[in-house]
Amino acid sequence: MEHRRKDGTVFPVEVRAGLLEIAGRKYVLAFDRDVTVRNQTEAALQRSRQLAMVGQMAAGLAHEIKNPLAGIKVSMEVLMNELALSPDDKAIFARTIGEVQRIESLLKNLLNYARTPRPVFSRIDLNQQLENALRNTTLLLKSQEYAAINGKGLELVRNLDPALPMIMADPSQMQQVILNLLLNAMEATPAGGTITVSTRQGRGETVEVVIGDTGKGMSEEACAKAFQPFYTTKPKGSGLGLAITRRLVEQHHGEIEVASVLGQGATFTITLPVEQQYKDENP
Fold this sequence. Notes:
46% of the residues lie in helices and 24% in strands. The protein is of the alpha+beta class and 283 residues long. The chain has three domains: 2-34, no CATH class; 38-114; 122-273, Histidine kinase-like ATPase, C-terminal domain (Heat Shock Protein 90), CATH 3.30.565. The strands form three sheets. It has a five-stranded mixed β-sheet, covered by helices on one side. β2 and β3 (25-34) form a beta hairpin.
């Protein structure tokens, strides 16, 4: 069951109770145990098993599929460009090449998830990173792949804290994290909707990035599974985008959470430490 602390936070509790009789009177003897750490350990163990499985799959797929797939794509491109084809036949070739590229993207995501590089920390301005990600998103939306999103006419609202401290982080990995969340929000938000990007100082020596949308939202079950590998609600999604995002955030010793209600949009909150704790490691 769940108990609530004085500060309002909820934590899981295991309750064991039994009947006790003393001097002819019956009592219920109950032991309450906070199982937060145990649940976290079990979740970490499950994730470790998933990572091992994904690593094996990624290595196998990359070796067995990547090179022949590249050959297939090149051959299809040559045929499409050199043969005298009708417009309908060219469209079939173009769709086929597009599907091959989608498989290549899935392989790349698998490898990124299984072998996420260690972050290279430097002092960065998180607000500037968000601005850079927003500019990159604008460029991406002009591509054919994201043309449908670009035509939605979404409103983008910035609430960036000018007093936000500089943090230690890997700028390229932060770009990837923010870009993933922005594109997800834009895909989930209907035409005329709003996406809000905020930064603020968190508890202790932390900062927070909040990306919220006015999209279709997520069920409680979807929120619980959102960061699991291969879980997706998209027809053509790989289910690895948010899983990779969480890995990158955790490599920065941070946390990422999602809060959502069906029909009322979703909000992702990233909490990052201002400083990083370094450990001496042998190469």
